[in-house]
Structures are given as C-alpha cells and as structure tokens.
Amino acid sequence: MKEYINLDEKNIDNEHICCAIGDPKHQEGVEKKKEWIKSKLKDGHVFRKLNARGKIFIEYEPLETSWIPVDGKNYMYIYCLWVSGSFKGKGIGKELLEYAIEDAKNKKMNGICTIVTKKKKPFIGDKKFFEHFNFKVVDEVNDYELLALQFNDKTPPKFCENAKKMKIKEKDFTIYYSNECPYVEYEIKELSDYANKNNIKINFIKIDSLEKAKNAPCIINNWANFYNGEFLSNTILNANALEKILK
C-alpha cells in the first residue's frame, strides 16, 4: 500500500522535498525552498509526496495567494505535479491529482487550475494528463494555456493582464526567478560568476512576494528569460545554455 506524506511545520526539516535529492550543489536551494514552503503553510499551501526516495509529489494552494500571475476567485492552483523514473505508470500521479481535487471540493472551492503548454516543456505540467481528468483551457498566452477543472458555473480564472505582455523594457539579458524551485539558487550563482568573468550584464530580478508574482510581465512559475526585451522561455539556464543563447 502506498504511503503519502503532507509536509508541515513538524516534519518539513526532516523530510526531503523530492527535487535535487542528494545533490550537494543544490542543498542551499533546497533549504531556501523549504523556507518558502514554511512561509506559505499559513496560506493553505500543500506539498504532498509519496513516502519514497524519488521525485513524486504534488504542490498546490489557493489561487489568491499563489505566486503565479493568474487571477481568479476561490480556485486552487497546482504549482507542480511530478512523478519520475520507475514510479511512472503506477497510478501515483492519478492519486496525487485526485487528492488535490477532493481537497479543493471539501474546501468548497469553485475549481482547480494549472498552467501547461501546447507543446510539452521542462518544468511545466503535461496537458494531456490533465485533460484526461476533464481540465479545460480557460485562457491562453502564446504557447501557454491555463487549464481549469470547474466544479460549478462561476467565472473561471484567467491570466493577469500584465502577464500577457511577455515583454520588458530592459534590453540586457534579464532573468526573473523565485525560490519556488530548489534548482534556481545554484544556477543564479553560476550565471552570476559567468557574467562577471565574461563582462556580460545580466539583470536578476527576484520575485520574493505575492505582489511581485501577481504583477510579473510574463507567464512565470519560478524562472523566466528575456533578451532584447523579448520573452525567451521559462527554462532554467546554466552557464553553457546561456552562452549558446548569447552566441
């Protein structure tokens, strides 16, 4: 029988958070991610994982307090649902999602939503998986789509108007990021070192509040790249990847 664990104030320090398990270079990012989760527990943030050593979890919270540029009333927002490696194909993803759906219903919410892309991209949910559970597209910006499973006929959520810009004024390479992902911290340091050594200017803009997240100039979960004022991607970059883009 599968055993699941929900992180809380009592167990979070002793439990792993699935991502970056055992990789020393990402441990600072793991600690910052845990601190972020702790700060969000009061908002109804849920991090539920399989009690196993692997990347098997779902993370969600009420849309009103979620660090995502999506607007809506009384919806739950899914940040991430990840089942990897040998754990795939065992119904775990289904059980995690059904738990979140039932949780949203028990809390008398109007529905539950998440962001996907028309063509699968890293760190973004699988559209086909959610569609299997009757999630429908309720808004879109470029390749990004907002999916929602509505429990009633209330107004569906939508992307904030500022997020639809997908442009900024700065022409230098610019990265928006937050500590929602444990991989972010190490890559920010690596890119900072690369930029300093190669005399390249990179603007790092940290999203560290709900207000900043809701007012982001693009669709962002935990990372967004801009160059010459244009949105490039949500892909977390290392130095090699950045070098290829700049060339």
Mean pLDDT: 95
- Compute the number of strand runs: 13
| Computed structural class | alpha+beta
| Count of alpha/pi helices | 6
Helix amount: 25-40%
CATH class of the largest domain: Alpha Beta
Sketch the major β-sheet: 7 strands, mixed
Number of domains: 2
What share of the residues does DSSP label as strand, in percent?
Answer: 25-35%
Q: How would you sum up the global shape?
A: globular
CATH superfamily of the largest domain: Gcn5-related N-acetyltransferase (GNAT)
Strand neighbour order, sheet with most strands = 1-2-3-5-6-8-7
Which fold name is given in CATH as the topology of the largest domain?
Aminopeptidase
Query: What is the string of SSEs from the N terminus onward?
Result: EHEEEEHEHEEEEHEHEEH
Q: How far is it from the N-terminal to the C-terminal residue, by CA? A: 52 Å
Compose a concise summary of this entry.
The protein is of the alpha+beta class and 247 residues long. The chain contains six helices and 13 strands.
Describe this structure in words.
This protein has a seven-stranded mixed beta sheet. It has a four-stranded mixed beta sheet with strand order 11-10-12-13, covered by helices on one side. The chain has two domains: 4-160, Aminopeptidase (3-Layer(aba) Sandwich); 162-246, Glutaredoxin (3-Layer(aba) Sandwich), CATH 3.40.30.10. The model has no long low-confidence stretch (mean pLDDT 95). With 247 residues, it is of the alpha+beta class. The protein is 25% helix and 27% strand. Strand 12 (223-227) and strand 13 form a beta hairpin. The longest helix has 15 residues, at 92-106.
